[in-house]
């Protein structure tokens, strides 16, 4: 019997052309192939030749096509014509928009540059935006890091010259035991997924430490459901056990860390010679010598005229019974036996399964080693441990743990990615000298070495609006973006004229106290003028923040502009190679929009800003692409390291190549330069790596250094609080500085615990980002909304049963700041005193071109309404920031709440009235045809 087979085209024409660029749907910076038909995007796949993702692409990356076609895209520059917050705008030309911006900015630059507060969100071009702000002359610049993960970055750099994620990665090919702390699924997701697959594929073990078992923790071989804010206590209990058992890499500690460095018994500062080099006792001779002398064996147990070593202080501190597993178990929510078991497993794999690579190398002392010792234990951590008021010390504790095991920059352990590692001394210090109509005296952000580097006026008042680098948060390397609007509104430390922001949804999901921030942005003074006089905002989409601006400078989507993922900023490097990348306009905008960086170039040209104009006043750069190619931060060093020199044959250092961008496009949008064999481990101390890094332009000269288990900058601040030196903290901060800025990692309870009644607010509340979303722009994506269109509050079994919850129920959740009413769902794999939800799912009605009854606007919500940028008042009349006292990191995850069953309302509460959308609502069905 004949059967008629259907006629199917098994080889349809997929595309006319493939254009290769870099994804922007999260911060992974994966390589993508953009398939084109008739000049339009047909679909997006991963680039198999790309060093980051090797062809792997997640749901976000594939859904990039829906971002490019999103109905919420802004269409043209706009000026506000209704009350601020109403969303009523009038479209204007770019010339009019730039004239308006210059009209606001020029008088500020001429009379008082600090009256401009310029802060950017997740823009991935901070070397450029910082350069712009520096040349404008304002001290008030930073990006999102202060409310994201500055504790992680600064904690790592101050301790060992780099941190996790963009700074380094596990040795995925050799590690046997991989331990994660506080990692959600949004950061570095494709490389981590690939790496976890490798570890599991060869029988390795993964331990996930997180109150919530989702994402990476769901596939971990062992899940540790820790109580939020106690990670540092758990880590130091493991350090205690390792010291007690003598399971320490003593040779590693003596050679590569400041553990053998002597501490002056009187000052607590490191002992140094006349050249400023740290002093150790050589075990071979018993003599006092500089740490970097050839042939020495630094003595960890030395004692010189009553001055002991860092190692001896560490042993004394961490062998204290307060850190014993039995002493911390109840607080951490982890049994003492389990703490001991995990510690034993770390030690067993690190030491009993150690291995060697048959590779010789020469260290910074000039000593040659025949082998490279591998310790197959690696760690990774992110925002979960960072976003607490004790997060800086917790991050340092985690680095202490991996260092005493000898697992940093060795085979099988954690490895730095170029341009890291860098000692603190290789980074700039912060600058804040303001001169009218001139550039700032140096970079805004950096790393302080002691009280002398604080950004304070002669009277002790803050130079910066966000109070970064003050006694309130001395080591705030990324600034405090979450305090900018609150401080500007309060006029504390001073009033500003113009708030200029880019891609920072501060009136909604990127602010604590979202409702309060909306009021701050719209409040008027007794004269009827807005308290924050002028707001300029740039975004690609009609976000919640758009309604609060006076002038909108519309950005493009990521496939319509140039971007530079640079070694000067946040490159795409891997542990084996330096790598950077670009984005380029694979399609042209169909709207009257411009890439924000190009808009900044145009503003700089009109303002005559140094760095952007020649001596005759003519423009140095036509647009951002021109800047990327022709700008040199130092002679021969520019934003891109690849294809330098007139022939494109130089890397790292070289003359400007006018065809550089074309070379990157031909190469798939990226450039990779591999580290030579033998230079790829022990980077901080390996002479071959140091020489290679100098040739690449990463260093100007070799920069070997010791890991700082004992932080001398912190001891300098602590000494000032004890009454030493000319610059001392105000009295109300003196005890806090002494207590929190211990030069050895410590743990203290999160600050909210002492500001609220923990007998009333017994529950910890967290948010985390899902793997299929990234910040707020993902939840307007037509494909991704089908994965996460609403977000319940997930409740553990103990709290669920105690409140008699059932499926479909709602709860009132209250904090010391406010309350929300939200849908709940049961989750068993959750710390028993913790509730959580996905972040940035909830939307305000009228934003993002969504309908007013969209699930994101009615069943989606934010925990932000329960969190305040300030801690509850202490009765002393002072404003205490809800931040880490050392770095100013926003303490999102210290939140304490109480929960009670509630009648189901029609929609989540609070429900704000709709805002008028400048782009209207999108169609019921988002469809279009690409090609014939």
Commentary on this structure:
It is found in: Cell envelope. There is one protein chain. It contains 24 helices and 33 strands. Helices cover 24% and strands 15% of the residues. The mean pLDDT is 95. The chain has 932 residues and is of the alpha/beta class. It has four domains: 18-62 and 559-674, ADC-like domains (N-terminal domain of TfIIb); 78-151 and 427-558, Rossmann fold (3-Layer(aba) Sandwich); 168-259 and 309-419, Dimethylsulfoxide Reductase, domain 2, CATH 3.40.228.10; 752-902, Barwin-like endoglucanases (Beta Barrel). The chain is globular, with a radius of gyration of 27 Å.
CA gyration radius, whole angstroms? 27 Å
- What percent of residues adopt helix (DSSP H or I)? 10-25%
Q: How many discrete structural domains? A: 4
Q: Name the beta content range.
A: 5-15%
Reported for the largest beta sheet, the result is: 7 strands, mixed
Level-2 CATH architecture of the largest domain: 3-Layer(aba) Sandwich
CATH fold call of the largest domain:
Rossmann fold
Q: Judging from the principal axes of the Cα atoms, what is the shape? A: globular
Q: Would you identify the regions where 5 or more consecutive residues have pLDDT less than 50?
A: none
Enzyme class: oxidoreductase
Protein name: Tetrathionate reductase subunit A
GO molecular function: 4 iron, 4 sulfur cluster binding; metal ion binding; oxidoreductase activity
Cofactor: [4Fe-4S] cluster
Primary descriptors:
Dimethylsulfoxide Reductase, domain 2, Rossmann fold, 932 residues, alpha/beta, single chain, metal-binding, 4 domains, 7-stranded mixed sheet, Tetrathionate reductase subunit A, N-terminal domain of TfIIb, 6-stranded mixed sheet
């Amino acid at each position: 019997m004949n059967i008629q087979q259907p006629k199917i085209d098994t080889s349809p024409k997929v595309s006319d052309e493939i254009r290769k660029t870099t994804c922007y749907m999260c911060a992974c910076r994966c390589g993508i192939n953009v398939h084109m038909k008739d000049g339009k995007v047909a679909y997006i796949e991963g680039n198999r030749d790309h060093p980051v993702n090797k062809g792997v692409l997640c749901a976000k990356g594939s859904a990039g096509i829906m971002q490019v076609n999103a109905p919420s895209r802004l269409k043209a520059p706009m000026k506000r014509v209704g009350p601020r917050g109403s969303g009523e705008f009038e479209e204007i030309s770019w010339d009019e928009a730039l004239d308006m911006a210059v009209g606001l900015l020029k008088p500020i630059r001429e009379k008082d540059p600090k009256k401009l507060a310029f802060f950017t969100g997740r823009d991935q071009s901070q070397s450029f935006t910082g350069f712009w702000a520096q040349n404008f002359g304002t001290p008030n610049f930073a990006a999102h890091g202060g409310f994201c993960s500055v504790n992680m970055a600064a904690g790592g750099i101050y301790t060992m010259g780099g941190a996790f994620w963009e700074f380094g990665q596990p040795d995925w090919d050799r590690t046997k035991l991989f331990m994660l702390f506080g990692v959600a699924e949004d950061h570095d997701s494709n490389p981590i997924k690939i790496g976890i697959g490798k570890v599991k594929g060869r029988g390795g073990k993964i331990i996930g430490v997180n109150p919530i078992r989702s994402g990476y923790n769901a596939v971990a071989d062992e899940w540790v459901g820790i109580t939020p804010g106690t990670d540092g206590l758990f880590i130091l209990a493991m350090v205690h056990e390792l010291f007690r058992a003598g399971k320490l890499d003593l040779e590693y500690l003596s050679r590569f860390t400041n553990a053998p460095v002597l501490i002056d018994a009187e000052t607590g500062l490191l002992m140094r010679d006349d050249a400023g080099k740290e002093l150790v006792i050589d075990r071979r001779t018993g003599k006092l010598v500089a740490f970097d002398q050839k042939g020495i064996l630094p003595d960890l147990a030395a004692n010189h005229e009553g001055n002991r070593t860092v190692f001896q202080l560490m042993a004394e501190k961490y062998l204290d019974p307060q850190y014993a597993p039995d002493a911390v178990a109840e607080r951490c929510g982890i049994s003492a036996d389990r703490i001991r078991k995990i510690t034993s497993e770390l030690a067993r794999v690190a030491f009993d399964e150690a291995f060697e690579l048959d590779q010789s190398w020469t260290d910074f002392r000039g000593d040659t080693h025949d082998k490279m010792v591998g310790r197959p234990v690696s760690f990774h951590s992110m925002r979960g441990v960072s976003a607490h008021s004790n997060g800086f010390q917790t991050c340092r504790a985690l680095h202490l743990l991996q260092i005493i095991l000898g697992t940093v920059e060795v085979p099988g352990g954690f490895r730095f990615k170029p341009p890291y590692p860098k000692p603190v001394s290789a980074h700039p210090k912060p600058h804040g000298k303001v001169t009218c109509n001139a550039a700032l005296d140096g970079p805004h952000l950096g790393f302080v070495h002691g009280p002398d580097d604080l950004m304070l006026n002669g009277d002790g008042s803050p130079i910066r609006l966000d109070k970064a680098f003050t006694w309130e948060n001395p080591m705030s390397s990324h600034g405090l973006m979450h305090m900018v609007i609150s401080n500007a509104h309060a006029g504390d430390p001073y009033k500003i004229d113009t708030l200029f922001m880019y891609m920072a949804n501060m009136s909604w999901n990127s602010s604590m106290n979202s409702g309060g921030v909306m009021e701050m942005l719209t409040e008027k003074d007794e004269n009827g003028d807005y308290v924050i006089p002028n707001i300029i905002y740039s975004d690609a989409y009609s976000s919640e923040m758009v309604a609060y601006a006076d002038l909108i400078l519309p950005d493009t989507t990521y496939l319509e502009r140039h971007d530079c993922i640079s070694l000067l900023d946040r490159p795409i490097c891997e542990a084996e190679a330096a790598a950077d990348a670009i984005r380029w306009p694979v399609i042209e905008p169909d709207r009257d929009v411009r890439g924000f960086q190009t808009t900044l170039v145009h503003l700089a040209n009109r303002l005559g800003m140094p760095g952007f104009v020649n001596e005759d006043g003519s423009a140095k750069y036509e647009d951002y692409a021109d800047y990327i190619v022709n700008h040199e931060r130092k002679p021969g060093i520019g934003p891109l390291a690849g294809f330098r020199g007139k022939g494109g044959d130089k890397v790292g250092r070289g003359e400007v190549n006018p065809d550089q961008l074309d070379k990157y496009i031909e190469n798939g949008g990226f450039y990779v330069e591999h580290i030579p064999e033998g230079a790829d481990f022990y980077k901080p101390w390996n002479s071959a790596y140091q020489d290679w890094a100098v040739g690449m332009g990463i260093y100007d000269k070799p920069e070997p250094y010791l890991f700082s288990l004992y932080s001398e900058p912190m001891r300098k601040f602590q000494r000032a609080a004890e009454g030493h030196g000319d610059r001392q903290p105000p009295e109300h901060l003196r005890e806090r500085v002494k207590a929190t800025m211990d030069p050895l990692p410590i743990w203290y309870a999160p600050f909210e615990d002492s500001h609220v009644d923990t007998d009333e607010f017994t529950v910890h509340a967290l948010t985390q980002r899902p793997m299929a979303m990234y910040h707020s722009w993902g939840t307007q994506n037509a494909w991704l909304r089908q994965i996460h269109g609403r977000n319940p509050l997930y409740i553990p079994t103990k709290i669920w049963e105690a409140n008699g919850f059932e499926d479909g129920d709602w709860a009132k959740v209250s904090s010391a700041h406010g309350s929300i009413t939200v849908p709940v769902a049961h989750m068993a794999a959750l710390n028993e005193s913790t509730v959580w939800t996905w972040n940035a799912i909830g939307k305000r009605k009228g934003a993002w071109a969504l309908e007013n009854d969209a699930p994101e606007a009615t069943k989606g919500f934010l925990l932000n309404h329960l969190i305040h940028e300030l801690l509850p008042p202490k009765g002393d009349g002072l404003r205490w920031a809800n931040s880490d006292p050392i770095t100013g990191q926003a303490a999102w995850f210290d939140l304490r709440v109480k929960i009670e069953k509630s009648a189901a309302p029609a929609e989540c509460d609070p429900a704000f009235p709709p805002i008028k959308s400048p782009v209207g609502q999108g169609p019921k069905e988002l469809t279009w045809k690409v090609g014939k």
